[in-house]
Design a protein that fits this description.
heterodimer, A: 22-stranded antiparallel beta barrel, 5-stranded mixed sheet, 5 helices, 41 strands, B: mainly beta, 7-stranded antiparallel sheet, about 10% helix
Amino acid sequence: MKLSLMLSFNKYFFLFFFIFAFSVFSEAQPCSIALTGRVTDESTGVALQFATVYIETEERGAVTDSAGFFSLENLCPGKYWIKVSHVGCKPKRIQLFLNSDKQVVFSLNHFSAFLNEVVVHGKNGDNTTQTSTTIASNEIQKKSNENIADILESIQGVSTLRNGTGISKPIIHGLFGNRVTILNNGITQSGQQWGNDHAPEIDPFIADHLAVIKGASALQYSGSSLGGVVLADTREIDDDPMLKGNVNYIFQSNGRGNTLNTQFERGDKWALWRVTGTLKLFGDAKAPDYFLTNTGKKEANMAVQLEKKLNQKWNTELYYSLFETEIGILRGSQVSNLTDLEEAMQREVPFFTKPCFSYQIESPSQRVTHHLLKMKAKYQPEEKTFFDFTYGGQINNRREYDVRRGKRSDIPALSLSQNSQFLQASLYRQISSGATLKTGFSGNYTDNTNNPETGVLPLIPDYLSSQAAGYVIFQNKAGKLFYEFGGRYDFEKINVWAISRTLPRTVEKHQHTFNDMSFSAGSRYPFSDLISMNVNIGYTSRSPEINELYSFGLHQGVSGIEEGDPNLSAEKSVKLVVNTDWKIPPKVNFQVLGYYQQINDFIYLQPQQEFRLTVRDAFPVYIYQQADSRVYGADFLFSYEPFYRMRITTKYAFVNGWNLDENIPLVNIPAPNILGTLAFFSREFIKLKDSEISLSGKYVFRQNNLLPEQDFMPPPDGYFLLSMEASTKKELAKSILKFSVFANNLLNVSYRDYLNRLRYFADEPGIGINFGVNYSF
Amino acid sequence: MKTIELLFILLAGALTFVSCEKDDPEIPNEEELITTVKYTLTPQSDGSEVVFLFRDLDGDGGNSPVITAGSLRSGIIYSGTLELLNEAETPVEDITEEIENEGDAHQFFFISNANISVQYNDTDLNGKPVGLKTVLTTGNAGTGKFKIILRHQPDKNASGVANGDITNAGGETDIEVEFDVVIQ
């Protein structure tokens, strides 16, 4: 048996050898191609000396001269993987096809020398006048133990609304929830986005990069994104026959959390494929003085991505992802009425705090499953035109468990199933050398059902929503000026099946239709290579969502009775964003973004004078109302490199929200915050590459723009947090090992945050140290 | 270009075929709901029964609850019995039993600013009070408020809790109803 195996192995080996030898000989003749070119800095255009241009497949390379030039000769025709690297720059891997002598220019991004640095701009050559900020994959890998919103928080102008450590959602320029669109791989994330304690069901590790578009409106994606758009995009799979993999593990001391991510991909003949998987297990987090009992989390995610080029004209993509999580919510934060809340607020240590650590998750908790299936076909009949056809199907199941009487804690108090179907067809056409037209239309269908297993009257009713939308965007480049304008129309029909609040219980049917228009115009102008400016103005109208129209019942999160208003009209917003970038090479980079947004008929929860008596005493009543409001603010980013390998970064953001009709502040607006980072970088240090160490201090001010009657408790005091990060890389023969250490809240400060619902009950987590290892090949 | 046009038409077609009908939602069986709190006081000597009744048939929201309270006589010892019902269900569900069975996870508290004192007259598995059965003693004539609170998962070992002091009890409130009380 063994022998025959050997024989057949030998047979195949020889066969393989002959094929290989033949292919080498057959192509061996014209190996005289020269690849020449230049390496420059992406931001300044300055030539880079001593940059390495390395042909991976040939295992040879060249180094640039003082003018940034290099040359590589005697190359055979074929496909090559080329790696371009330079001290303090992020290396770039590029695939090239060589048939004859070729001249190329490689540009490296010098400003992202620091691997953890949030890239200031979108991808190079992003054709938009919108201001966007991107977080790259290596930063995501290092923080893959965090929620997507927590990672986004490193962007100036983005904050996080939390319900403890496990649940967080992004706030962009003061707005969140229904007003922020999250695109998961190009598909609008569908789910119970209206809930303040409903986190987006996306595993950040699956994303190659995360981007936040802070612009006035993003017509291509959604008509309701008053605040901004979050993009979680995967990367295209390289047509590389070598198997590539990435295994990432993070241990976090606070919560004794374990995060394991894996990713494998290869360009096979039948298709290009990528498989990603994530497992997370966290236990109770610890505030400086006590354990936060029942704040553990379990999560399991996976994604499969396939790409297949059918022919020169058709390119297809299939993507499926599954997100599954179980999140514990601090036991001491479940309150049944105002008396409970008042008592809980007076406690030094929350009720039900256990003296020891546990991985166990009990009620109150959430269990969420989210499926996403995406199919995309790109048809390019000619170079200047292509069509995109996208289908997106999503199933979202959400179950929320409360501590209940009579062994009912295992029965969810809220159980929702949502199924949504999305279809879109888009056309991109290059009209002339600088002008592009983008247009498309889409349909979306959402079916939302309450499962009757709860034994509780649902907070939001069952509904069906059918939407249709169309958009047109025109872009043009006239000299140095780049400008765009566009419009979008959204139609929505919503059918509602509500259960009456009076006896006998009956089903009441309602129907609404909404027509929304959005317009946007913007321009970008580089005054020089060093100073550029973009201005964007957009009008958006957003029709009210189901919770704003029909929610009815006790909302535990706010200890009040929440009532929707079926007569609400659409919100109408005008937002102006002005962004300027200044570069004083090679040391200073400065970005200022200012925005002003007027929102007429802004929908918000207004506390009423009335208290409603129930068997659990009186509850305050909140009703969805509309008022003209405005939001303005600014984001600043400043970076300075006083010495080579040292960098200082400062970020500052403030936002002000005001209800003009009532003349009161808007609630849940982030307090001003400032972040300072001092980082040191070393290209090579005792055989370790790209080592980096940084110290960051963050100060979040007290939210003073709030009236005492707008909250149960005055906003918490400002706080200062110190964190430290170190990472390095060891290059092995064919693989890379990365190590990172990240310490949060180094001074073990006890603090509370205004944007965390748990501020009424407990302190935020204390010191935590994360250790990460990443192995990639 | 033909196939493309066809695809566009198909897509538009698919969108119009989306249904607008859906099954009526199943009305959940609100078995956990407490609609009625009935506190019956029987004088230990002679005299007539006094009933404190809180009733909110449609649960939270909807119509306001109906609250009635009889008047007490001064200087009398009453035997108190609490009864909890879910009258939204047919047949009416008696929740008292559920509380009795989970006695160790529940405790009633009686708070008043009138001349009333309430003693527990029952115990759970651990010998701690529950409050379904009580002894109520009235003092001098007067008026005031009388509150009945039911806590789920209170800390019965905390200081004063076993004697009816709610201060350190914690837990979640299942019932908190208030009556106007008259002692004649």
